[in-house]
Amino acid sequence: MDFKNVKEYLGWLYYQYLLITSIYVLEPWEQSIFNSVLFSILAMVVYTSYMVVPVHVHLALEVFSGICGEQPESTMALMN
Amino acid sequence: MGRTTTPVTNGKLKIQMNGNNFKSAVCQKNGYDNKLQINGRANGTGPPSGKRLFQGQESFEQAPMYVAVMTYLGFGLVTLFGYFRDFLRAVGLEKCHIAKERDEQKDFVPLYQDFENFYTRNLYMRVRDNWNRPICSLPGPVFDVMERVSPDYNWTFRLTGKTIPNVINMGSYNYLGFAENNVDFLKTVAERVQQYGLGVCSTRQEMGNLGIHQELEELVAEFLGVESAMVLGMGFATNSTNIPALVGKGCLILSDELNHTSLILGARLSGATIRVFKHNNMQSLERVLRDAVCSGQPHTHRPWKKIMIMVEGIYSMEGSVVCLPDIVALKKKYKAYLYLDEAHSIGAVGPTGRGVTELFGLDPSDVDVLMGTFTKSFGAAGGYIAGKKELVDYLRSHSHSAVYASAMSPPVTEQILRAMRCIMGLDGTTIGQTRVHRLAENTRYFRSRLQEMGFIIYGNDDSPVIPLLLYMPGKVVAFSRAMLRRKVGVVVVGFPATPITEARARFCLSAAHTKEMLDKVLFDLNEVGDELCLKFSQRKYTSRPKEQHHNNNDLNKDFKQDSL
User: Fold this and answer.
1) Would the ipTM clear 0.85, i.e. be above it?
2) Residues in chain A within 8 Å Cβ distance of B475
3) CATH topology of B58-169+431-540 equal to that of B183-424?
4) pLDDT computed for residue B94 by the predictor
5) Confidence (pLDDT) at B539
6) Cβ B530–A1 below 8 Å, yes or no?
7) C-alpha distance from B39 to closest chain A C-alpha (Å)
């Protein structure tokens, strides 16, 4: 299949989404309901991960650097 | 789209099957295992008599896991929306199109079971423009479809008055191309209409036994290689009214999992005990037979009066061919009777079109009751039962449809006579044999090309019925519509008639299809397969050497409906 432009390709991808989830058989207003529900759930997931993930990654890095930072100090203490 | 197959099982497993007794590999398994199943040679409990002329391979490949997951997800989503719409209908926000009781009768016992129709109301109705399409021409290799539109999402239809001409027909059971309207071929049929009229106005037993009926019965017996045959006016009724005459209470019927509704109905009407064995699985059949012979009838443990094994020649939903040599060996070993329903296989398989007995090189007298229909390969209507003379004479007076049903109409009888004489070569031409060979060629070609393209195909390599798996309900519907837009008419089958995850499109090839038609259909299938992502197969096939290259211009030409 050759697509003339990006718009056609995106249209084909949307068609595949409709077929795979079987939303294709529903009436247009039902499709809109489903799309909006799915979109809002995905938006909430993205937003939550945006708020939560950097903080947790930062904390995790701190813990790991704490462990690695202490290690050479304790061996130095033992040697002294 | 409905078919119920509730297996009726009773009886306890008294004897444990010892695996060592059955030393050879199972013949064919159905497709519900994890690995790819390709089964070649059939090995049974003993070597069958007669040589095997053809032994096609059967395969039931399973699709990747995500396909099953997305199919269930799709059904789940549509069910949720179904509940939502039912709620809207109950509340009154939406008009209810289905049958409902009147307001005055709301307190009575309900007449319409709402929940049973849930699937019909909420899934089938949305997409039912893909079924029951009206056609307005002969169902030959090409036909004309009437166009219809629906203003309210398929609750009602309106014919626009236009037809879609020359749609290639991949759904009609026209295996040898006898559904034709060529004046020369139909001359004798027209003569019969002038001689006898159309209605017989009686049953065979009273005043309806015409000379041509007896001529047809003798010809059918000669065609099949048996002693005697009886013909009836309707194929479905042949099964459902004759099985009660053969078995009754105290008998046992062993029926294949995927038998047709007519066989199941006949079995239930007879009152015999029914036990089901796995599709085409000889180990399962042997186990059930051993149990039955050892334990006897359910409560009294008396020996069964009769044990009858019911199988079909070609199973039309799977395209699989019965493992006949093994079943004949088993039936001889355990002294059971065999009822073979050759509705789809008579005329369509075998080197000269005599059915599965010829395909496997067996003697037709090994099968006790041979049954078939004239609807598929002979372009007529009706069915036959054949076997030994005593059996057929008994059935003539004890079968419901032989005694009570109206006799076969004379032009239909003449059509079967001329078609059968054509296949046997008795009319002096080789048209019949040419058609049988062309069907076999078309089958081989179409199947191999489909497998090369990467579709999942079920069934035996020799069977002209080709199910192409589509799996997801959205794709099933989109496939049917896309193919009709490209002027190819296909039959798609979904949930109640097939397992829920295995919706499919079923192609029925015909000897009347020319290679150009098949090439056009294959080209369209290739494009639609890419567009809808239907090529699930994970097997690699070496492509056959390219014989010729078709120009794309050829594929756009219109196929005119002409007679062969």
Assistant:
1) no
2) 19-20
3) no
4) 79
5) 79
6) yes
7) 32
Tell me which chain B residues have a C-beta less than 8 angstroms from the C-beta of A27. 126, 153
List pLDDT tens digits, range B252-294: 999 999 999 999 999 999 999 999 999 999 999 999 999 999 9
Q: Is B368 exposed, middle or buried (0-12, 13-18, 19+ CB in 10 A)?
A: middle
Nearest to A25 among B70, B78, B532 (CB): B78
Confidence of residue B560 (pLDDT cuts 50, 70, 90): low
The structure's pTM equals 0.82
Residues of chain B found within 8 Å of residue A16, distances taken between Cβ atoms: 532-533
Whole-number Å distance between alpha carbons of B26 and B283: 6
Looking at residue B38, its pLDDT comes to 41
User: How far is A25 from chain B, CA to nearest CA, in Å?
Assistant: 6
DSSP string, B182-212: -TTTTHHHHHHHHHH-S---SBTTTT---HH
Question: Nearest CA to CA, how far is A31 from chain B (Å)?
Answer: 10
What CATH code would you report for B183-424? 3.40.640.10
Q: Are B168 and B141 in contact (CB under 8 A)?
A: yes
Domain ranges for chain B, please list them.
58-169+431-540, 183-424
pLDDT-based confidence at residue B407 (cuts at 50, 70, 90): very high
Residue of chain B whose Cα is closest to the Cα of A30: B81
Residue A80 has what pLDDT? 56
B527 contacts on A by Cβ (under 8 Å): 1
In chain B, the percentage of residues whose pLDDT exceeds 70 is 85
- The class that CATH gives domain B58-169+431-540 is alpha beta
Residues near B326 by beta carbon (within 8 Å), at least 6 away in sequence = B27, B42, B43, B44, B45, B48, B282
CB A58 within 8 A of CB A52: no
